[in-house]
Amino acid sequence: MGSQAAAAEEEQSRGSTAARANMGDLPESCVAHVLALTSPRDACRCAAVSPTFRDAAGSDAVWARFLPPDYRALLPPPARSSKKEAYLGLADSAAVLMEDGGGGGMAVWLAKGSGGKCVALSARRLCLPWDDGELCWRWTPHPLSRFSEVAQLVDCTCLDIYAHLPASMLTPATAYVAYLVFATVDGHRGLSFPDQETTVSVGDHITSRHTVCLRPDIVETHRFIGLEGCGSDDVRVPALRTDGWWEMEMGRLRTGGDHAMAREEEEVVASFEVLGWYPKCGLVVEGVEFRPLCL
């Protein structure tokens, strides 16, 4: 029995060795085809398997699959010599800025791990309230902003902010999160109450709605609206980013497949609204970002 078990183990070992050899003998084009069906992160990991995998993982056939169809229009000069270099040029902090003469614009880049499109709309591209005329907002440069101008709230009583984006601008069949990117100045007012709401919708369908608070301050909340409504555990609060801006998660959505994305009339809308009518000031809006849920 012992000799039979040893023989079986030896045969299994030879089979595994043969399987590894066969995998290494695959043509580079076959390996590239398989890697193109994975993700940028997985392709980079597979490059360590063997020389064949390394060459396939760096080929244009693989990285062309990870690039969006309009990548050439997004690339800043100089032109990249390979598809992988083009991808890395659009990844993470290598945002592409497109601005018109009025300072409005958007930044587009790729999430390095997944290849999903990230889009940031500047404050100029948002719908901002103008109930008191142009005295409501002041357009000004900001040292931390990627855009030439941000919007600083001077004074208003009704505050609602809307971001509109064609669904076709985002990667199909991908889970996204929308974020309000903002800061506040000293002496800000009316931003500390938990009566703020965010909503995200795709077309006519609302995908998420949340109660939020940009600047939680229990003392100020008690002073203006009393104890009621300020102890909820469901109120979302912002997070401080490494670039110095604060971001508030507005909600999540999932884009449709290729056919759904081709419908130009389908629109993604992310909104932030303060439900109470009272004086507000000191909010600095850089924009709204749409980023894939899994980077």
From TrEMBL:
Region Disordered: start-end pairs: 1-21
Gene3D superfamilies named among the record's database cross-references: 1.20.1280.50
Highest taxon listed in the record's lineage: Eukaryota
Residues covered by the F-box domain: 24-66
Family matches, as PANTHER family: F-BOX DOMAIN-CONTAINING PROTEIN, OS08G0150700 PROTEIN
Descriptive protein name: F-box domain-containing protein
Source organism (scientific name): Brachypodium distachyon (Purple false brome)
Gene name in the database record: LOC100838003
